[in-house]
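User: Could you check the structure of this?
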Amino acid sequence: MPKRHGPAEPGDKARLELVFDKPDLLGALFGEYDQNLVAIENRLGVYIAARGNKLQIEGSAEAAARARDVLTGLYNRISVGQPIDAGAVEAVIAMSAEPTLDGIIRRDVSEPPTVMIRTRKKTIVPRSANQGVYMEALTRNELIFALGPAGTGKTYLAVAQAVSQLITGSVDRLILSRPAVEAGERLGFLPGDMKEKVDPYLRPLYDALYDTLPAEQVERRIASGEIEIAPLAFMRGRTLANAFIILDEAQNTTQAQMKMFLTRFGEGSRMVICGDPKQVDLPVPGVSGLADAVGRLEGIEGIATVRFTTADVVRHPIVGRIVEAYEGPNA
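Assistant: Sure, the predicted structure tokens are below.
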């Protein structure tokens, strides 16, 4: 059971009160054994006391105000039917400290997000400010580069948007690809047919698909060719029209491979290229095709580049701290 803080220290300056008009939503807001309240207390250094439909927040003026905004934001999300879990709580807490584009005023987390992706299994909302920017770019631009560390939702959100457009008929096909490059390992001979040999490299793409579509639909659409999952080498010589095309782990492409992939673009298609420029596993040292393409194409009309940071990591909070440690000054 999560542990709660005691009352705020005497030196703390603020005591705020929140009143909620829908008491039946408070169970979801508080979480099992009040785990959501405990998470907010521990992250922000405040004390939260619940009395009926009222919450009292004690702590420093800044921390209490952030906790108020976080709780209001979570409550408003629940009010419009958006699910709240530990990841959503962590995300809203993180966004409560993020600056807006002018760098002065904090991002307002008290309102539900205006951008979302609807799939057969779930409705997905942004869990960081950059995810909101990325999700808007996915609906607006024909070619998107998504750059940043693991756990920021680059590939997952791209697959979710692709599934959404496939369901609505905006595209006819979903094509997922990644280079079959070993991540610092030598796997040797793999038994089986071609599919069995390359499937381990493509497993993260399958995982995202099964999280957004029922399993039977994934299998049926793969069998019919509506969804195609293939290594990058299989893209050569093709023109991909009316398709949503995703290239994952793009930092492991050569310049020639990236040019080949980009020129597969066909009429009515959308392309998303995801990768972490700091995690290149190319067997022969050289310029990554991802870095080269971004350098050449960034700023061209119709092409968007979204850069994620460790602040956007939406897996378990410890993942963000691990990534930050590896990318910090002593890396």
